[in-house]
Design a protein that fits this description.
Blueprint (H helix, E strand, L loop, with lengths): L1 E4 L6 H12 L5 E4 L7 H8 L7 E4 L2 E4 L1 H11 L10 H16 L2 H6 L18 H18 L10 H15 L6 H12 L1 H10 L11 H4 L10
The structure holds glutathione.
Length: about 220
């Protein structure tokens, strides 16, 4: 299997299935497709049916879309607890994952993932307040029920879906409860996440669309690159 991914520093969707593959020790290779620079969009369109990453290649099969990739992995490796084993818990984990996939647009647009950065105070909290409130409720309820350290006790695909959100809380020092803060630390403590982070920190590339100083107009595009 091969996973086509974007720049590790910025590509939230790539991080999710990569964590599942790595944490559950599924053999795979990866290849980074640039999300900036000359011709990057044409290159993505040549390699990915949706023009986006991640894409899983398994023989002749080409699977785009994060959720579809994760479900394919769960189908291929039914003995690995990618989702919680209990049916009700699986339903909750899938619901939480679908909610992440479809929602949290405030956090996604106003606090982009940027693993190498530390930008406390840069995010206008009004733009993310609704999302943070919902995160607190969802994470709080699931962590209380499971006892942690992950949403359903042990790490599952639901945590992979929320891992990029956890990084935003750290990067922008967003105000969260102790419970949510501990969950962020659990994500950072996951060996698979640490491996991704170490590779991300070696990357030289800058994606202006994901740099908050560019988004907020303090730095013109092209200066950071
Ligand atoms: N719905 C897709 C979203 C994938 C996505 O937006 N990926 C970003 C990188 S994190 C991308 O490829 N952006 C390039 C573009 O939109 O042109 C999924 O779930 O995988």
């Amino acid at each position: 299997m091969k996973l086509l991914i974007g720049n590790r520093n910025y590509s939230t969707w790539s991080l999710r299935p990569w964590l599942v593959l790595t944490h559950f020790e599924i053999p795979f290779e990866d290849e980074v497709l640039q999300l900036s620079g000359p011709g990057w969009q044409e290159n993505l369109r040549e390699r990915s049916p949706t023009g986006k990453v991640p894409v899983l290649l398994d023989g002749d099969l080409v699977v785009p879309e994060t959720i579809a990739i994760i479900e394919y992995l769960a189908d291929c490796f039914p003995d690995k607890p990618i989702w919680p084993t209990d049916t009700s818990q699986r339903a909750r984990a899938r619901a939480a994952s679908a909610e992440m996939h479809a929602g949290f647009t405030g956090l996604r647009s106003h606090a982009p993932m940027n693993l190498r950065a530390s930008y406390p105070g840069r995010v206008n909290l009004d733009t993310v307040a609704k999302d943070l409130k919902r995160l607190e409720a969802l994470w709080g309820e699931l962590l209380l029920a499971s006892g942690g350290p992950f949403l359903f006790g042990a790490f599952t695909a639901a945590d992979a879906m929320y891992a990029p959100v956890a990084t935003r809380i750290r990067t922008y020092d967003l105000p969260v409860s102790d419970v949510a803060g501990e969950y962020v630390e659990s994500i950072y403590g996951l060996p698979a996440f640490q491996t991704w982070l170490a590779e991300a920190l070696k990357e030289p590339w800058v994606v202006d669309d994901d740099e908050i100083d560019v988004i907020q107009g303090r730095i013109p595009p092209g200066v950071l690159a």
